């Protein structure tokens, strides 16, 4: 592995990244803030994926048969190593993804929390006994690991998404083959290295690094020895992977796109709602599947909310994630910058007003100013497409019925947020919103202890919590006659 950056001391730490010369095809990883080359990695494909599957198939029986307590102890050691190297991991994450160092550090802590949670849950995979209809039988249910798991993770949370998928699979006894996003593979390599240092057997947790995921994804989806696919990314790619898994009726977990509504009712605490909107919209420069994509504000408080939000957003500092006062980092690449720019230009052309921000920041890097738009309607791209950037479109609404209809009028159903204080309204809206996760008077709701996932075309299955174990387990019914 060839490394060329000021982070050499992190990337060359043998406890973090293994040194290996690249031979044959390779791809580059660059810092989105500066364009600086961070590393050159081997560009793997179908042969490497098949080899990884074969290695996993060899170790799978022994790993599944290991006592749960032993797997738990390995995972606990992995957790402890992650926290021991949190500063190095955060630095790697910021370098390859761009988010502010404080956010990166928080993400690494979140990743460690998933590992810890599933280290504990590894010992709590329970079966059932239940009454038989006659005295000559006994009836049981046991749960067993599904087998080899193929996982594909995104670039926007390259540490926590790895942990959220890999940890439950390893906990129950499934070997994992991970294809991390090509933009942000370094922190995944580091996490795998720490897992090996913790004592995980070779072949139990493997990486396939690739600049283009189509061939690797197809091999994982169609290979008969891979029993489950877990993917986080776009709905378009999720549909493709689901089709590729269909012939084998393979287990699939999908965490896909979102278009989260953020609703502010006239009885809300406006200052709290502004703080929540900033959290839900501008964390990770808006590059979050649960990001508030459409901000609905009731007419009576619309102007007040918009003014306070713009004042708060105008104080957010944009820049390189290593600078201590920066709160919004770069977009992941030029394509993302073009999309966000196009969405804002389309909104302005159609009558939206820019209260703050509105364009690119600087001539180098992929920075976009945190932006607040008012007079937004549903004919604008910012209201009907997932912007995935630091742009807050504020839409006026009149009644509860009106905003529920507008909020649900989408193919997506991942996350939603609303602010209100009247209890009857809170229950009514929470039950009516067609989303898998709802934040009520809060802009952040992710936790390793809670089920993460969506409805409609935002995905299938849940990650995190005890429910996140179930997709990696097969249920087997045993009926035993008297001996």
Throw out a few tags for this protein.
483 residues; alpha/beta; Aldehyde Dehydrogenase, Chain A, domain 1; Aldehyde Dehydrogenase, Chain A, domain 2; 2 domains; seven-stranded mixed sheet; 16 helices; 40% helix; globular; disordered N terminus; Succ_semiAld_DH; succinate-semialdehyde dehydrogenase (NAD+) activity; Aldehyde_DH_dom; Aldehyde_DH_Superfamily
Number of domains: 2
What is the general shape?
Answer: globular
- List the strand order in the largest sheet: 13-16-17-12-11-19-20
In CATH, the architecture of the largest domain is 3-Layer(aba) Sandwich
Total count of strands: 23
Q: Class by helix and strand content?
A: alpha/beta
The percent range for helix content is 25-40%
Q: Regarding CATH, which class of the largest domain?
A: Alpha Beta
Q: Sheet bearing the most strands, described?
A: 7 strands, mixed
Count of DSSP H/I helices: 16
Unreliable residue stretches = 1-8, 12-20
The radius of gyration is 23 Å
What fraction of the residues are assigned to beta strands by DSSP? 15-25%
GO molecular function, one term: succinate-semialdehyde dehydrogenase (NAD+) activity
Protein name: NAD-dependent succinate-semialdehyde dehydrogenase
Keywords: Oxidoreductase
InterPro entries: Ald_DH/histidinol_DH (IPR016161), Ald_DH_C (IPR016163), Ald_DH_N (IPR016162), Aldehyde_DH_dom (IPR015590), Aldehyde_DH_Superfamily (IPR050740), Succ_semiAld_DH (IPR010102)
């Amino acid at each position: 592995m060839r490394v060329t950056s000021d982070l050499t001391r992190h990337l060359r730490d043998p406890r973090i990244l293994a040194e290996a010369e690249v031979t044959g095809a390779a791809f580059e990883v660059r810092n989105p803030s500066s364009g600086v080359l961070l590393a050159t990695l081997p560009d793997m494909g179908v042969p490497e994926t098949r080899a990884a599957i074969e290695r996993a198939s060899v170790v799978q029986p022994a790993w599944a048969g290991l006592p749960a307590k032993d797997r738990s102890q390995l995972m606990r050691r992995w957790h402890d190593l992650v926290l021991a190297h949190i500063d190095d991991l955060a630095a790697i994450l910021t370098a390859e993804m761009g988010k502010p160092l404080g956010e990166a550090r928080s993400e690494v802590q979140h990743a460690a929390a998933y590992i810890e949670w599933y280290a504990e849950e590894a010992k709590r995979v329970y079966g059932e006994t239940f009454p038989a209809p006659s005295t000559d039988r006994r009836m049981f249910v046991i749960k067993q690991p599904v087998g080899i798991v193929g996982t594909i993770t995104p670039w926007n949370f390259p540490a926590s998404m790895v942990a959220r998928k890999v940890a439950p699979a390893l906990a129950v006894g499934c070997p994992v083959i991970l294809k991390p996003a090509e933009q942000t593979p370094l922190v995944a390599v580091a996490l795998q290295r720490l897992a090996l240092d913790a004592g995980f057997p070779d072949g139990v947790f493997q990486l396939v690094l690739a600049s283009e995921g189509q061939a690797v994804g197809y091999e994982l989806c169609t290979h008969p020895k891979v029993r489950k696919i877990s993917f986080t990314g776009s709905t378009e790619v999720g549909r493709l992977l689901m089709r590729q898994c269909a012939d084998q009726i393979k287990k699939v977990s999908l965490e896909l796109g979102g278009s989260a509504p953020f609703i502010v009712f006239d009885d809300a605490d406006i200052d709290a709602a502004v703080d929540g909107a900033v959290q839900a919209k501008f964390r990770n420069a808006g590059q979050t599947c649960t990001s508030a994509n459409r901000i609905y504000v009731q007419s009576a408080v619309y102007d007040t909310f918009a003014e306070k939000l713009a004042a708060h957003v105008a104080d957010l500092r944009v820049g390189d994630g290593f600078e201590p006062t920066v709160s919004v980092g770069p977009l992941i690449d030029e394509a993302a910058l073009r999309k966000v720019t196009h969405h804002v230009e389309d909104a302005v052309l159609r009558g939206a007003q820019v209260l703050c921000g509105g364009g690119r920041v600087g001539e180098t890097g992929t920075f976009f100013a945190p932006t607040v738009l008012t007079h937004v309607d549903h004919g604008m791209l910012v209201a009907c497409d997932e912007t995935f950037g630091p742009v807050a479109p504020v839409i006026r609404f009149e009644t509860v019925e009106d905003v529920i209809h507008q909020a649900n009028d989408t193919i997506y159903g991942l996350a939603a947020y609303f602010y209100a204080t009247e209890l009857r309204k809170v229950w009514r809206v929470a039950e009516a919103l067609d989303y898998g996760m709802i934040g009520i008077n809060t802009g952040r709701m992710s936790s390793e202890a809670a089920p993460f996932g969506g409805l409609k075309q935002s995905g299938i299955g849940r990650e995190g919590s005890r429910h996140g174990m179930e997709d990696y387990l097969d249920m087997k019914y045993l009926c035993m006659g008297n001996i």
